[in-house]
Amino acid sequence: MTPSQHDFDFIFGRWTVRNRKLRDVTDPACTEWVEFDASSEVGPILGGIGHTDEMTVPEPADGPPFVGFTLRLFDPAEETWRIWWSSSRFPGVLDTPVVGRFADGHGVFESSDTIGGRPAQVRFEWRADPDRPHWQQSFSYDGGASWTMTWEMQFTRA
Q1: Domain ranges, residue 95
Q2: DSSP string of 119-144?
Q3: Half-sphere exposure of 142 (CA within 13 A, CB side)
Q4: Which of 127, 147, 123 is nearest to 137 (CA)?
Q5: Is residue 3 assigned to a domain?
Q6: In this structure, is residue 58 part of a structural domain?
Q7: Global pTM?
Q8: How far, in Å, CA of 71 to CA of 86, rounded?
Q9: pLDDT higher than threshold 60 for residue 1
Q10: CB 72 within 8 A of CB 51
Q11: Which domain of life is it from (predicted)?
Q12: Tens digit of pLDDT for each residue in 83-96?
């Protein structure tokens, strides 16, 4: 299947989101996991060539409540998606986008960034299940030789 602007259509709608993440995703030595719930609403923009996702987290286990925002845009010439993240925890900051595509219902999106003051590779992975989508984030501090999952989300339709 050729990547298309419809790759993320499975996530449109309202969701309950179960989060499991490292307490401090910026610390490569952190091994303490926390869990919390959120709600998310996702919809198309720009005639369907992109979409936005706003996630509300009223009671996170790792700090004050926050709202997260994701912008996903499809580039038809490159057949790739760019995904940006921002949150009310870091006002005015739009993270470096991860870039990638889907193959057989599995999306992989990567970038180079700085995490906690350290150069790192960032990877988002999506499982495109229309009933129970799954997302996870991993970081590599050794140029991609090894990866550590830092956050995962399981979505259930609201």
Answers
A1: 9-23+32-157
A2: EEEEEEEEE--SSS-EEEEEEESSTT
A3: 5
A4: 123
A5: no
A6: yes
A7: 0.94
A8: 9
A9: no
A10: yes
A11: Bacteria
A12: 999 999 999 999 99
